[in-house]
Amino acid sequence: MPDIDVNGFQLHYEDRGEGPPLLLLHGGTGIGADWQHVFTAGDPDGFRVIVPDLRGHGRSTNPSKEFTFRQSANDMLALLDRLGIRRANAIGLSAGAKTLLHMATRQPLRVDAMVLVSATPYFPAQVRAAMAQLTVDSFSDAEWATARQRHVHGDDQIRMLYDQMRGLKDSHDDMAFTPPLLGTIAARTLIVHGDRDPLYPVELAIEMYRSIPESALWVVPNAGHGPVFGPLAAPFVETAVSFLGGRHSGT
Fold first, then answer.
1. Rounded distance, CA 104 to CA 114, Å?
2. b/e sequence 27-57, b meaning 16+ C-beta within 10 Å
3. Are strands 21-25 and 48-52 parallel, antiparallel or unpaired?
4. Strand partners, 114
5. What is the pLDDT of residues 137-186, one digit of tens each?
6. 124 CB-contact burial (10 Å; exposed 0-12 / middle 13-18 / buried 19+)
7. Is residue 120 part of a domain?
8. Which of 8, 68, 142, 192 is the most exposed place for a label (fewest CB within 10 A)?
9. Starting at the edge strand that comes first in sequence, how are the strands of the sheet with 111-117 ordered?
């Protein structure tokens, strides 16, 4: 479970297994270890699984005190560079999926195949309203205890992280993926979206599906944001791993 210095901060990640590299990117205010609640039977066979904590999350630091998905993508590309990985497969959940959109448009040949869970090309009004409500001020003692276990650099880190996520409500240039820009994505892409997602209407998933050249769309019935946990984990893992296995990448 090494930490490395990239782009001016300490990035924590785990690197396990052998085979084509598979990058797993967690959601906003989450941590890399959250993927154990999706891959409940352990890492998928036949992959080298790389699981980072995004900038300012979990065990990763963030001295800049800023967060954008564009910068998050730069961080992940720097991680791949440090590991000597030319091309990777990837799965991203929410914030992780937004990071992947930047990676796949900034350096299209670096991502072989990817799964975007609860992604969006831009922020609709309802998610900006939800972001405006993000705060730790109403945390119970139990919620603080959980947050401290997940984000280990102290209460200032936790407050900063939630302030950053709340501040995204005023961001308009970070997530601004037009159909022509999405059309530059070379990666085979599986878009996974709950048809009851309260943040990103399913129409946004359809928009991405129509714009990304080699894409497939899986609309999960009666599912909300992040439809990969609990009873939805097993079908997600089977479908995602099968999709990624359709064409393995090399290092």
1. 9
2. bbbbbbebbeebbeeebbeebbbbbbbbbbb
3. parallel
4. 90, 189
5. 999 999 999 999 999 999 999 999 999 999 999 999 999 999 999 999 99
6. middle
7. yes
8. 142
9. 3-6, 9-16, 48-52, 21-25, 88-93, 111-117, 188-194, 215-220
- Predicted confidence at residue 247, as pLDDT, reads 47
- CA 102 vs CA 75, 83, 107, 110, 196: distances in Å: 11, 20, 8, 11, 25
Q: What is the count of structural domains for the chain?
A: 1
Is 129 inside a domain boundary?
no
240: tokens are 């995602």
Q: How far is CA 4 from the centre of its chain?
A: 20
Closest to 189 measured CA to CA, from 89, 64, 76, 78: 89
| pLDDT at residue number 249 | 41
Residue 95's pLDDT is 98
Here the tokens at position 229 are: 């946990």
- The per-residue pLDDT for 108 is 97
CA distance 72 to 77: 9
CATH of the domain at 100: 3.40.50.1820
CA-based diameter of the chain, in Å? 48
How many beta carbons lie within 10 A of that of residue 18, not counting itself? 9
Residues of the chain with pLDDT under 70: 1, 247-251
Which range marks the domain in which residue 40 is found? 3-124+173-244
142 in a structural domain: no
